[in-house]
TrEMBL record:
Topology in the lipid bilayer: Multi-pass membrane protein
Native species: Hippocampus comes (Tiger tail seahorse)
MF annotations from Gene Ontology: metal ion binding; symporter activity
Protein name per Swiss-Prot or TrEMBL: Transporter
Residues annotated as transmembrane: 68-86, 98-119, 146-168, 228-246, 253-272, 300-321, 333-354, 456-482, 494-513, 525-546, 567-592, 612-637
Family (UniProt): Belongs to the sodium:neurotransmitter symporter (SNF) (TC 2.A.22) family.
Record keyword Glycoprotein present: yes
PANTHER family: SODIUM-DEPENDENT NEUTRAL AMINO ACID TRANSPORTER SLC6A17 (PTHR11616:SF102), SODIUM/CHLORIDE DEPENDENT TRANSPORTER (PTHR11616)
NCBIfam families associated with the record: Na_transp
InterPro entries documented for this protein: Na/ntran_symport, Neutral_aa_SLC6, SNS_sf
Sorted UniProt keywords: Glycoprotein, Membrane, Metal-binding, Sodium, Symport, Transmembrane, Transmembrane helix, Transport
Location relative to the cell: Membrane
Stretches with biased composition (Low complexity): 723-736
């Protein structure tokens, strides 16, 4: 193409493209069309193969489809699948919880996951670039995603640091959390009182690992061990991200697959333990009445939402490195179901092990209370006639103790409470719900102390947590680096290193002695509400502003087939309604639940709920406001033309893919691009444009809706209108 052609001049400039195809061709210099690389038809009666613009024009790409799938699985499958899903399943009706979860996965999870994959793959940009081009006034969506990724990355890597510390502590026998430490007091040796009042694993977590303070107001200074662990975690993440997807993709081969190996090993080992079947049976015993409670559906929706990593930008960033014709619909369904099945597998493992632990604790309860009864018998507080003749205290079973307990309780009804006997019911132990750090660093570690070869299983478990966290952190960091590198001209390696250094310095907040309380604060407030707002705006911008009809046509052009009609209704109606209900429920819960945290009280050796002090409350709500602040700022700035709409930063790769799309459409149906009689005249409305119609519709799209001055930006425009065509923004759908 000549250097002074209008197309060439326009590509070298940063102005908006407003000319129609007719205008561009009308101003072109004559070409030898038969010898041109843009010739897609050739001589009459002779088909000449189309010469396509290469997609890999400088933007990195995945080495293989498997590498990409493992990266998406590694990002979506994280620590929440291991320590959050089992807790929700137990709390909300066992097997009955799986029903609302699966329904919401189909209604919200897969459609929105598919939407993010599609826009990232089509536009080939990070979250900032994608939403700038879909709707410039809502360009703050990408910036809010980046802010949330930053907040989550700060505390999420701290959890990886904790896992690294436990990983290295596991290389010793016996495990350091298997017994309480002994304190020497002169010639006497006594058990550490704080440990004796709680348990060895609880003491090791709160005192020897975190060395936590009793309130969030007491910083206590930096915890050196946790600071070094956090530094190691950021070094690992930085090395994995700094080389881009070529490096992080290879890391995913191990970090995504290794957790499944460990989970299967734990499942086989767990099923061989005494009481594991009790745990699994308790887990999947459905409590159907729970399904009628709105709280169960709200928590199921929230878990679906976060399990797939929606709104973080990592999904969009990973898919932006795909080929334009990749089947992202298959990817969305596959990754979603892998995520769901992983949660089921992790739940089986957790409750097989917790069932074993419950049996151990129940047997210990029986032994301790049997000793009390023997003491009462020897001191004549209880009569020997109360003990059934078949009971043998040297081999006391749980059923024998339960029978003896009921007899004593019936006979000594008036003074029974003074005896201090516990019922020792297995169901009570199984109902002790634990989640998060309480599950990973206390309950699970305590169960592993009873395993044969316990150090080996401990090493495997915490190495698995490191890999699960690493996969999610790579996706989170990619959600930060990709949009910035796409939008601004900065050196990739330098920017990544600077991000990691700044994040480590900010992360020192979480490795002071009160840092555990700040982790809880960020986990509760930095992501929940802002991410929900981000995703509903993503949904609305595509379904209602850009237009579901046009988006469905884009998908057909990109994938080679039209997605099922159900997606039209899910994106346009069902998902937005569900998300609005979820936001409303979250705000109501936040308004009525007192903001606070569980503090470890050293004197009592147990947790106590405490309300946040005023400065901490300000910090909580500042996290929400700061994360959502880019949304109104960008909207106002672009509404009053105070900020560029970002269209002048359209990537070369996307411009070439747009030209390729037009070329493909010409080959499929030249009549769709028949030009008007005069330059600038809009193309005629043809039957081919019926693909843009909604199901059962009969009204073609108004070509004016493709105006680059409308809210749709230039992101999905596969054609442009003439500058003489009115550019008043109109909606692409008749029922908007």
């Amino acid at each position: 193409m000549p250097k002074n052609s209008k197309v060439t001049q326009r590509e070298q400039s940063h102005e908006h493209v407003t000319e129609s195809v007719a205008d561009l061709l009308a101003h072109e210099e004559p070409l030898d069309y038969k010898n041109s690389s843009l010739n897609v038809g050739g001589a009459a009666g002779k088909k000449v193969p189309q010469i396509e613009v290469p997609e890999n024009d400088g933007r990195p790409a995945w080495n293989s489809k498997l590498q990409y799938i493992l990266a998406q699985v590694g990002f979506s499958v994280g620590l929440g699948n291991v320590w959050r899903f089992p807790y929700l399943c137990q709390k909300n009706g066992g097997g009955a919880y799986l029903v609302p979860y699966f329904i919401l996965l189909l209604v919200i999870g897969i459609p929105l996951f598919f939407l993010e994959l599609a826009v990232g793959q089509k536009i080939r940009r990070g979250s900032i670039g994608v939403w700038n081009y879909v709707c410039p006034r809502l360009g703050g969506i990408g910036m809010s995603s980046l802010m949330v990724c930053g907040f989550v990355g700060l505390y999420y890597n701290v959890i990886i640091g904790w896992s690294i510390f436990y990983f290295f502590q596991s290389f010793q026998y016996p495990l350091p959390w298997s017994d309480c430490p002994i304190r020497k007091n002169g010639t006497f040796a006594i058990v550490e009182p704080e440990c004796e009042k709680s348990s060895a694993t609880t003491y090791f977590w709160y005192r020897q690992t975190l060395n936590t303070t009793s309130t969030i107001a007491e910083s206590g200074g930096l915890n050196v061990k946790m600071t070094l662990s956090l530094l190691a975690a950021w070094i690992i993440v930085c090395l994995a991200v700094i080389k881009g997807i070529a490096s992080s993709g290879k890391v995913m081969y191990f970090s995504s697959l290794f957790p499944y190996v460990v989970l299967f090993c734990f499942l086989v080992r767990g099923l061989m333990l005494k009481g594991s079947v009790d745990g699994i049976a308790h887990m999947f015993t459905p409590k159907l009445e729970k399904m009628l409670e709105p709280q169960v559906w709200r928590e199921a929706a929230t878990q679906v939402f976060f399990a797939l990593g929606l709104g973080f930008g990592g999904v969009i960033a990973f898919s932006s490195y795909n080929k334009i014709d990749n089947n992202c619909h298959f990817d969305a369904v596959l990754v979603s179901f892998i995520n769901f099945l992983t949660s089921i597998l992790a739940t089986l493992v957790v409750f097989a092990v917790l069932g074993f632990k419950a049996n151990i604790m129940n047997e210990k309860c029986v032994v301790d209370n049997a000793e009390k009864i023997v003491g009462y018998l020897n001191s004549n507080v209880l009569s020997h006639d109360l003990i059934p003749p078949h009971v043998n205290f040297s081999h006391l079973t749980t059923s024998d103790y339960a029978e003896m307990y009921q007899v004593i309780k019936t006979v000594k009804e008036g003074s029974f409470s003074h005896l201090g006997l516990d019922p020792c019911i297995l169901e009570d132990e199984l109902n002790k719900a634990v989640q998060g750090t309480g599950l990973a660093f206390i309950a699970f570690t305590e169960a592993m102390t009873h395993f044969p070869a316990s150090p080996f299983w401990s090493v495997m478990f915490f190495f698995m947590l490191i890999n699960l966290g690493l996969g999610s952190m790579i996706g989170t960091m990619t959600g930060i680096t990709t949009p910035v590198l796409d939008t601004y001209k900065v050196q990739k390696e330098l920017f990544t290193v600077c991000c990691c250094i700044v994040a480590f310095l900010c992360g020192l907040l979480f490795v002071q002695r009160s840092g555990n309380y700040f982790v809880t604060m960020f986990d509760d407030y930095s992501a929940g509400l802002p991410l929900t707002v981000v995703v509903i705006l993503e949904n609305m911008s595509v379904a209602w502003i850009y237009g579901t009809k046009r988006f469905m046509q884009d998908l057909e052009d990109m994938l080679g087939f039209r997605p099922n009609i159900i997606y039209f209704y899910l994106w346009k109606y069902v998902s937005p309604i569900c998300l609005i209900v979820l936001i409303s429920a979250s705000v109501i819960e936040m308004a009525f639940s007192p903001p606070g945290y569980n503090a470890w009280v050293e004197e009592l050796a147990q947790e106590r709920f405490q309300s946040y002090p005023p400065w901490a409350l300000v910090m909580c709500f500042a996290l929400i406001v700061v994360a959502m602040l880019p949304l109104p700022i960008v909207f106002i700035a672009r509404h009053f033309n105070l900020m560029s709409d970002g269209s002048n930063k359209l990537s070369v790769s996307y411009r070439k893919s747009m030209m390729k799309d037009i070329s493909n459409l010409e080959e499929q149906d030249e009549s769709r691009f028949i030009l008007g009689a005069k330059p600038g005249e809009a193309p005629a409305s043809l039957a081919a444009r019926k693909a843009y119609l909604a199901p059962g519709g009969n009204k073609p799209l108004d070509p004016n809706s493709l105006s680059p001055k409308s809210c749709y930006g230039t992101g999905y425009q596969n054609a442009a209108i003439s500058p003489t065509t009115p550019t008043t923004p109109t909606t692409p759908e008749s029922d908007f």
